[in-house]
Amino acid sequence: MQACPIRCSTLFILVMDVLNSLAAMEAIVSESGQERQQPKSPTEVVSQVLPKSSTFLQNVGIKYANKSRIGGASALQMQQLQAQLDAEKQESAGLKDQLDTKKIQAQESEAKLAEQTV
């Protein structure tokens, strides 16, 4: 039985990739523990290490964790804050319109009082 050098080298590369990925995952877990952050879930760690081109996560039904974090805020938190900000902007715009309407009414009332006193 002859050994196939292509299969062996491919298998070796895959094993090395797995070992490198495991080392990276362990580093991420220990890093979050040292920084006294909330520990990352295994899903977050795996999705952070595996490349986005990997179909492994998709095949097992795991969505990628968002790597972009700003000041510790996750993408979901950012979306929630953005929605809250948008709602507050709309409310502010509505209040500004009401204020403008009241100012116009006050000016009209002042004009009528000025006409009556003349």
TrEMBL record:
<protein>
    <submittedName>
        <fullName>Uncharacterized protein</fullName>
    </submittedName>
</protein>
<keyword id="KW-0175">Coiled coil</keyword>
<keyword id="KW-0732">Signal</keyword>
<feature type="coiled-coil region">
    <location>
        <begin position="78"/>
        <end position="105"/>
    </location>
</feature>
<feature type="signal peptide">
    <location>
        <begin position="1"/>
        <end position="23"/>
    </location>
</feature>
